[in-house]
């Protein structure tokens, strides 16, 4: 293993770039100051492991921040947790990057920071770890795009467990537009991984072109992650309608009528579980596909 200049140069680049991106994100209210203390170390870990992983993190961050800003006026009226600019705190950043950060640290340790192709014949462990990172960000991006764009759909959402119509903002409510958005979000993650890999990764010709299969795999992972998130949201996350605020809320109270779900997990908890499950499923799939 080579733990020489390459990995440290990437880490230095990540500190500089991560600091600049964090400062811009705080100014634009994409994150609050507490999120910086989680986001910058995550960026350093991802970049040290390989530019492809930093690319996935950045694609998720920038695209999710962009879609969050679409239709803010309508979302303000529907979402009880709406924040201007979609501002995220350290808990939200950690829930959307924590598992991947652990995986990229393991990848850096095993590979010495050398980019490797998905190839189980070369290393099943590395293939599974890389696949897990792909699944992680496909799920994160899929859930964000689905939630942020699905709530703007003209169609009335249906709760995924019974397919009955529910109010917009209900956890577990899905629309065709939201599901298509989740698939598109996963596609963007797969495409980024492949394009950056073409520039940074060296491997045998047959293995190299097989990496294109990451695109449909990530697309499926984005959709699958969104569906898992919806199932959890409909069953273990509370949704109720507040007669005073005239919107769906996630906390029970005297003026709230229950719509669905048990109050076992909040939104961050649901995200972590759905991300973990999608990460494992994608990691296993990669060991069979590649």
TrEMBL record:
It is found in: Membrane. Keywords: Membrane, Transmembrane, Transmembrane helix. GO terms for cellular component: membrane. The keyword Protein transport does not apply. Pfam families: DUF92. It is a multi-pass membrane protein. Belongs to the TMEM19 family. This is Protein PGR. The lineage of its organism: Eukaryota, Viridiplantae, Streptophyta, Embryophyta, Tracheophyta.
């Amino acid at each position: 293993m080579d733990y020489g200049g390459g990995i440290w140069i990437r880490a230095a680049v990540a500190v500089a770039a991560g600091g600049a991106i964090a400062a811009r994100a705080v100014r634009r209210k994409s994150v609050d100051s507490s999120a910086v203390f989680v986001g910058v170390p995550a960026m350093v870990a991802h970049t040290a492991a390989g530019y492809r992983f930093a690319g996935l993190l950045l694609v998720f961050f920038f695209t999710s921040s962009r879609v969050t800003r679409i239709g803010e006026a309508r979302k303000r009226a529907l979402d009880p947790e709406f924040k201007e600019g979609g501002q995220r705190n350290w808990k939200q950043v950690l829930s959307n990057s924590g598992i991947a950060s652990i995986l990229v640290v393991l990848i850096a340790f095993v590979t010495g920071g050398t980019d490797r192709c998905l190839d189980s014949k070369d290393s099943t462990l590395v293939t599974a770890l890389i696949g897990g990172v792909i699944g992680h960000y496909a799920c994160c991006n899929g859930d964000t795009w689905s939630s942020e764009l699905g709530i703007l759909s003209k169609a009335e959402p249906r709760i995924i467990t019974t397919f009955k119509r529910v109010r917009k903002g209900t956890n577990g409510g899905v629309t065709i537009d939201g599901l298509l958005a989740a698939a598109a979000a996963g596609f963007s993650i797969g495409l980024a991984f492949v394009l950056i890999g073409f520039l940074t990764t060296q491997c045998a010709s047959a293995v190299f072109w097989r990496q294109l299969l990451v695109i449909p795999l990530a697309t499926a992972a984005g959709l699958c992650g969104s569906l898992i998130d919806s199932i959890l949201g409909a069953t273990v996350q509370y949704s109720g309608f507040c007669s005073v605020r005239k919107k769906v809320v996630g906390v029970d109270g005297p003026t709230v009528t229950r719509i669905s779900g048990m109050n076992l997990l909040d939104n961050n908890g649901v995200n972590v579980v759905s991300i973990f499950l999608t990460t494992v499923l994608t990691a296993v799939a990669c060991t069979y596909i590649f």
